[in-house]
């Protein structure tokens, strides 16, 4: 690598002196220093209300009112205009929301292809190949033309994961992908996410409450050590 800073040395996430609060609300988050290696698998833990989803919003460029600096893959995301920030987010981040956010009127395959369809200059054939191999590895091929109402919770979660990954993002944010699933499905979903993000050489941040799964990850961050309520 000829650049002064080799790409592997640039962290996936670099936070310095971050302070954030919701307006007048009493919740606040203060992260003095956090660095997450590229291509690492990170579990994000902390009780309900400790700021895990807020941290994800900050990393996605959705919460501009904070102090300090946040760099994602070496980029000052908030230094960009909002429209440029959204297209950067779509291209580089794979978000797997807590409630799946699947659409009733699209088939499984159509949903998985959706993020890639909005990327300018992307070869759609590549996204289709990636989507089909993800569907295959996650046991969803037979359901590719089905709608979400005929799927189990575990299957819906796998569709949401495939949709988050088919456009080959560099950073994957999964908000409690195993909540409300039985223990065996939780383990399967976690392994799937870890395997697929390794395959993409992407960095994975996964929010989980299941501490028996933590040994699967390279790093565990506990958000509650950075959060607090008001001035009490
Ligand atoms: P977690 O994901 O760890 O459960 P959240 O990041 O969702 O926690 O929320 C952290 C805290 O911020 C909670 O006390 C929550 O009620 C509060 N909160 C979340 N979103 C907002 C908002 N938009 N406005 C005000 N307070 C919020
Ligand atoms: Mg949350």
Structure description:
The chain starts with 12 loop residues before the first strand and ends with a strand. By secondary structure, it is of the alpha/beta class. Helix 3 runs antiparallel to helix 4 and helix 5 packs parallel to helix 6 (183-199). The chain is 31% helix and 22% strand. The strands form two sheets. Strands 5-6-7-3-8 form a five-stranded parallel β-sheet, with helices on both faces. A four-stranded antiparallel β-sheet has the order 4-1-2-9, with no helix packed on it. It has six helices and nine strands, in the order E-E-E-H-E-H-E-H-H-H-E-H-E-E-E. It has a domain at 39-48 and 81-222: P-loop containing nucleotide triphosphate hydrolases (Rossmann fold), CATH 3.40.50.300. The mean pLDDT is 91. Helix 6 links the parallel strand 6 (171-174) and strand 7 (203-207). It binds adenosine-5'-diphosphate (ADP) and magnesium ion.
Strand order of the largest sheet: 5-6-7-3-8
Biggest sheet details: 5 strands, parallel
> Which stretches are low in confidence, meaning pLDDT under 50 for 5 or more residues running?
none
CATH superfamily of the domain at 39-48 and 81-222: P-loop containing nucleotide triphosphate hydrolases
The helix/strand series, from N terminus to C terminus, equals EEEHEHEHHHEHEEE
End-to-end C-alpha gap:
50 Å
